[in-house]
Specification:
alpha/beta
Amino acid sequence: MKKPFEEHTLQYDLWFDTKGREIYLYEGWALCKFLPKGRGIEVGVGTGRFAEIFNLKFGVDPSINSLRISKNRVKNLVCGYVEDLPFKNESFDFALVVVSICFFDDVFRAFSEINRILKKGGRVVVGFVPKDTCTGEFYSYKGLKGHRFYKYARFFTEGEIEIIANSEGFRKVKTAYLFAGKGGAHIRENWGFRAKFAVMEFLKL
């Protein structure tokens, strides 16, 4: 899926510096607790916002316009779809997928391809907005109303993602849910309807 990000690239990237700034920083804070060491790649790198803060050197995305912006943030960029990743087998130690899983055309194929490019024992870290939370329900509602991004999105629960990942050769290591508000942010392992974001880590078997 590249259409909305190809057409509304600048609006998408601006969100991280404006009304989305706070949640973006909270999401980065939650993700940093999961990232392994080694040679990593962000799959669905977009405009490079997350790859930049984690100093990832590799990124792949189908949107040319997004890559034009991310070239100032990420050193090695490739245009391609997650369902057909343009990398050799066992090229990376870990992969990062942040808020892009809901836009994949074929989630099963995506996990299969990520498995292929990871070394044995490699990990994939998935950051997403869970379907069964207030935020997930709100975004789904906005999609039904024709929102330029969310109308293309398909949201998942933790359980649904685990089933898909397991079927493509991964085992869940852990999950964390991010809760954020006026009093700050905290992370816990258990699901909650008011969670803003979730992170799952999987091990390639």
